[in-house]
Amino acid sequence: MRRPDTLVLQSHRQPLPAAWLEPCLDSVRRWARANGFDYRFDDDVLFESVPVDLRERLRQRPAIAADLARLTALQAALDQGYTTVVWLDADTLIFDPAALRLPEDSYALGREVWVQSVHGRLRAYVKVHNAFLLFRVGNPFLEFYRHAAERIVRAHDGPMAPQLVGPKLLTAVHNLICCPVAERAGMLSPLVASDLLAGGGAAFELFRAKSVVPPAALNLCASLVGRDFPVDRVDAVIERLLARGATGR
């Protein structure tokens, strides 16, 4: 039996620290199965692929280590014979699977429309993110991205923002070269999540206005749950998205 050409890869430490991550993972597994893709879930073994010196440097910065590790894992999958590899963070929910189609480009990044309050006024920052990544055989980007990310970590002195080699690096590069983007692979800020549960609001309307297309998948930003968004409301957000999508209605 011929192996599928596409692998969907996810990872998280086990056991899962929050029950709400399971429906997110399940949504990705079902999407992969429906499209005939291979699916693989790795736990912390993923970090073993990070060079030893970087692993030591990032011992207290697991988010950055994970950003590096996924790149090595994705390249390894291409080397193993897959023609297309896809990464989705474990806190990503696919709620409109039929609409989430892989771009035809040789690589693609996720879309971030981040709405937040700045000095009492709402602002939307349109960027890219690495909670969704796609690479195909022969793509020109993955090797460069790995090289650049590792050099940045080795050269960086002082505190490292968790997004240093993720959205920050990718958005800087994207602003210069206009990378291909999977517009339907989005990200949900706490203000937009609150508006979703309220049935609408200014933050959600700004999110919708700045989005090229309605998202079919959203990263729920686990790092902000319990800090900027109540833990006990995440299940309601997931239920809302699975029932009615991100239409605001």
Describe the structure in your own words.
The structure is a single chain. By secondary structure, the protein is an alpha/beta fold. Helix content is 38%, strand content 22%. It has eight helices and nine strands. The chain has helices at 21-34, 52-57, 62-79, 142-155, 164-177, 190-198, 202-210, 234-244, and strands at residues 6-11, 38-42, 84-88, 92-94, 107-118, 121-136, 181-182, 185-187, 217-219. The strands form two sheets. The protein has a six-stranded mixed sheet with strand order 2-1-3-6-5-7, sandwiched between helices. A three-stranded mixed sheet has the order 4-9-8. Helix 1 (21-34) links the parallel strand 1 and strand 2 (38-42). Helix 6 (190-198) crosses helix 7 (202-210) and helix 6 (190-198) packs across helix 8. The radius of gyration is 18 Å and the shape is globular. The termini are far apart. The mean pLDDT is 95.
Secondary structure: elements and pairs:
Layout (H helix, E strand, L loop, with lengths): L5 E6 L9 H14 L3 E5 L9 H6 L4 H18 L4 E5 L3 E3 L12 E12 L2 E16 L5 H14 L8 H14 L3 E2 L2 E3 L2 H9 L3 H9 L6 E3 L14 H11 L5
Parallel strand pairs: 1-2, 1-3, 5-7, 8-9
Antiparallel strand pairs: 3-6, 4-9, 5-6
For the report, how would you describe the main beta sheet? 6 strands, mixed
Give the SSE order as H and E letters: EHEHHEEEEHHEEHHEH
Helix content: 25-40%
Total count of strands: 9
First and last CA, distance: 44 Å
How does the overall form come out from the CA principal axes?
globular
Structural class: alpha/beta
| Number of alpha- plus pi-helical segments | 8
The overall average pLDDT, rounded, is 95
Radius of gyration: 18 Å
